[in-house]
Amino acid sequence: MLKGALIGCGHIANYQMEAWSKIPEAEIVAVCDLIEEKAEKMAAEFGVGKIYTDYLKMLDQTSPDFVDIATRPASHFELIRAAAERGIAVLCQKPLAASLDEAREMVKTCEKHSVPFMVNENWRFRPWFREMRRLLDEGKVGASYFARFIRRNQRTLPEPRFGGQPYFVEMPKLVIYESGIHYIDTFRFLLGEIESVYCQTKRIGPIQAGEDLAVFILNFAPNESGESPLGLVDYNWCSQPEYEYSLADDFRLEGREGTMVTKGDGVVHLLRNDGKTDSIETLDAPAGYKESFRATQAHFAHSLLEQGEFETGGRDNLKTLAAVFAAYQSAEKKQLITL
After folding, report:
1. C-alpha–C-alpha distance, residues 312 and 238, integer Å
2. From residue 269, how far is each of 147, 248, 282 by CA, in Å?
3. Arch. (CATH architecture) of 2-115
4. Domain 124-293+320-338 has what CATH class?
5. Domain boundary assignment for the chain
6. pLDDT tens-place string over residues 283-336
7. pLDDT tens-digit series, residues 72-107
């Protein structure tokens, strides 16, 4: 069994700890947070025996096989470097870094010490997207040529509603950097590599520093059929969601032989060119949200044990981050940015 340690006991760590409790190949033996009460609460809830406020002491005293970093991006490099220098595998929450150069240094550091490094980019592990990937691999929609995400979440109007993540209000880069990054990574999972980005953003809410509305177009490299798909993201945090569950996905992918649609209920609809529809149930949106954490972390654990390749390894994640920062560059310059 793998022995792990968690750094950061905030909002998102609760989901990660619940996921670890469902993965028999791994056990979290220690948790760390600058606020001792947070670490104590997390340890009590999940039966963890060791509590720390000093992450270096935790790494040295527990010698874990891996560390799960669930802190804000500004702390990632320091934590990753400490783990890498001790030969400890790293799973790190997204977004990885405040700049592409800093993210590259993190990857180089782990590679220098031959330490496995994966980014906890879990949207692509949602069960409906895994089902769509299977249907794509089976050729059910033919050559893909277009896909789009639409999502609404009323988090900035009429007042900030950031729940367990109040620091969002201060972030100069917001919906693309914090959440739109999931869609970019999922697009890469389903459609391939991104060649260029065109983006426009707006700041609608009255208080937060960063953008809360973004619309962007992604141009993808030609697929095996020679098709160069287009991707569209239409996303904001300033209007009423259509669905009761705010983390539901409204996604459509079109191909020459059919179309796949999911609308927040965990069901994948395959609209065939013969006019018939196949509907495949996965999990409802709340259950699928939690399952994406378990599936991502299980993939990390299994890959460590089997010495396999991570789907969202550090070097791969650089491609996702490049598209994120290209979107901001495009919005600033009001022009298409080639990656």
Report:
1. 30
2. 14, 15, 11
3. 3-Layer(aba) Sandwich (3.40)
4. alpha beta
5. 2-115, 124-293+320-338
6. 998 999 999 999 999 999 999 999 999 999 999 999 999 999 999 999 999 999
7. 999 999 999 999 999 999 999 999 999 999 999 999
